[in-house]
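Give me structure tokens for this 168-residue protein.
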Amino acid sequence: MDSLVQVWQLLGLVLIGLLLTVLYCLKSFIMTDIVERRAARQIASKLPDCADGLMSDLTLRLESAGTTQIDHVLIAPHGLYVIEQKNYSGRLLGNITDRYWTKFSGSASILKLQNPFRQNYNHIKAIQHTLKKAEVDCINVVIINGRCQFSGTEKPEWLCMGIEDFTS
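Here you go.
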């Protein structure tokens, strides 16, 4: 009987360990979702009178194959603001035309990231394909949240350092 209790206790500990591991792995996804929802509320609360609405967390088919997830699309009479949101900290180095940007976190941590403007370009193409209008005007916007400093040679026009930078 004692061995059966010990097996159940061990099984319980293993299950708790697995649950904690899964929650730890999902933490960044959950935090990203929270930040994106907060940004959607901030953008929606500050919509200009001319804006027709905001859609968030859209999944569209790509022309070639697969799907793409778009953080936000702000609908305005003069075009669609296609918004890619990133949560970065540290120093970010890149140019609008670079394939990859480099993120420096501290003195030793260096990470190569896909240029978010290039990533967002694929989102724009998916929107144009879905609407069957290649000429629809889309403004490529990247919002970087978090304690991040951009150090490229020239800051791209629609690179917003924080949601306030976009909504002001």
